[in-house]
Amino acid sequence: MSALPSSAIAVRSLLSINNYHYRRGGAEAVFLDQNALFEQRGWKVMPFAMRHERNLDTPWSHYFVDEIEFGGQYSAGRQLVNAAKIIWSTEARRRIESLVREHRPSIAHAHNVYHHISPAIFGKLHSLGVPVVLTLHDLKIACPAYKMLTHDGVCERCRGGALWNVAVHRCMKDSLALSALILLESTAHRVLGCYRNHVTRFVVPSRFYLEKFVEWGWPRERFMHVPNFVDTSALEPGRDTGESFVYFGRLAPEKGLGTLIRAAATARVRIRVVGTGPDETELRKLAQAQGADIEFLGYRSGSELHAIVRGARAVVLPSEWYENAPMTVLEAYALGRAVIGANIGGIPELVRPGETGSVFPSGDVDALAAELDAMRRRPDSQVLDMGRAGRDWVLRDFTPAAYADRLLGVYRELGVAA
After folding, report:
1. Phi, psi angles (nearest 5°) of residue 129
2. Which pLDDT tens digits describe the chain residue by residue (418 residues)?
3. Which ranges constitute the DSSP H helices of 291-338?
4. DSSP letter string, 196-226
5. Which residue, among 358, 288, 353, has the nearest Cα to 316 in the 3D structure?
């Protein structure tokens, strides 16, 4: 198909793309908050996603693609259809072309699209003359399993094109079938140049990810560092400091919660764990076996979560994979809490030791125990000063306005009137 004439493209209209149109995780939060932010600035925002029962209402949903739940229970025939869509969704290409031709966006900005919408849409957008920006919330364009993490820890075996490792090491849910499918998917997308040839600019929330992609052979000039943002207007900072420490997030192997539980037992501090995930049962057993003072609070959100964080001494992020730019840190700061973070991925970019918190070597139980003990022993005034310094940092560098201005700078570079 031929590109749309430049005169037909509407000014200040954003085609915003993500697999899900509800608050499922960090990528969805950025996607939805970015949409709201640009609407507030007078942009026409057109979301494009997958149909899902939990989606937020939108007049654009009739363009959405049919639902696929990766790893869900389907008939053998439907599984084959879904496998083909995961690799190359002709439905997504058809529907997004219809939307573009009818509404002519100025620019397309995508977030997570793999496994559902598929990057097949990027070539279609490119052929229609719509610039494509992709925010990289994970490492998918380098690592087929998107985490650079496997059974024996952080993994860069696929560097240099050795993608077969994803199947050899069963990197997707320890399943040979799923891992082989993802190997096929990633190989096809590389051969077809879905990302390399059809994405105009990549946005990365952390400098660590930018440098990692460059290490893996991607050209630096294709990437722009745009940190995440947090709206502090509804996040009142705590005025006092508690005695317990808080972790909030997913209960999954890469999050380092086993290390945190062991460190809590060593330091004899109390940890409040907020969240759910596949490791919850095993983590409860570990806490009991270690004699650790761990309170599992389950899923909490909104004002209830904010109250728990405000009541903490500090927030702990003990990750054991290449975290990108976790919103946990910015939200903790916005609530006036210091952060103890693992020295891995993009986390150390967001923690200023001695000023807004501290860092420790990822996976090191004794080092984390020492940081927990040190934070417990600090005078309350120093702990509160750290939280205030974190909030001040957010108010300077991680505001919605700063985020929008940085993105608009990217769009202007691509010739979009902003």
Report:
1. 80, 20
2. 455 544 344 458 999 999 999 998 889 999 999 999 999 999 999 999 999 999 999 999 999 999 876 555 545 454 555 566 778 899 999 999 999 999 999 999 999 998 889 999 999 999 999 999 999 999 999 999 999 999 999 999 999 999 999 999 999 989 999 999 999 999 999 999 999 999 999 999 999 999 999 999 999 999 999 999 999 998 999 899 999 999 999 999 999 999 999 999 999 999 999 999 999 999 999 999 999 999 999 999 999 999 999 999 999 999 999 999 999 999 999 999 999 999 999 999 999 999 999 999 999 999 999 999 999 999 999 999 999 999 999 999 999 999 999 999 999 999 997 6
3. 302-310, 327-334
4. TTT-SEEEES-HHHHHHHHHTT--GGGEEE-
5. 358
Q: What Å distances lie between residue 251 and 166, 176, 289, 299, CA to CA?
A: 23, 24, 18, 10
Cα–Cα distances in Å, from 27 out to 18, 22, 23, 325? Answer: 8, 10, 9, 11
| Strand order through the sheet with 270-274 | 293-298, 270-274, 245-248, 314-317, 338-342, 357-360
Q: Is the pTM for the entire model greater than 0.70? A: yes
Domains annotated on the chain, with CATH: 6-141+195-229+399-413 (3.40.50.2000), 232-397 (3.40.50.2000)
CB atoms within 10 A of CB 363: 18
Beta bridge partners of 50: 65
Contacts of 218 (CB under 8 A, 6+ apart): 141, 142, 196, 202
Q: Which residues are CB-contacts of 95 (< 8 A; sequence separation ≥ 6)?
A: 48, 63, 64, 65
What's the burial of 147, exposed, middle or buried (CB within 10 Å: 0-12/13-18/19+)?
middle
Distances (CA, A) of 112 to 116, 129, 269: 9, 21, 38
User: What radius of gyration, in Å, describes the C-alpha atoms of the chain?
Assistant: 22
The per-residue b/e assignment along 276-293, b for 16 or more CB within 10 angstroms, e otherwise, is: beebbeebeebbeebebe
Tell me: the pLDDT tens digits for 164-197?
A: 999 999 999 899 999 999 999 999 999 999 999 9
Residues, the chain: 418
User: What is d(CA 89, CA 77) in angstroms, rounded to the nearest whole number?
Assistant: 16
A 10 A CB-CB count for 211 gives 14
Residue 250's φ and ψ, nearest 5 degrees, are -75, 145
Strands (E) in 222-330, as ranges, are 223-225, 245-248, 270-274, 293-298, 314-317
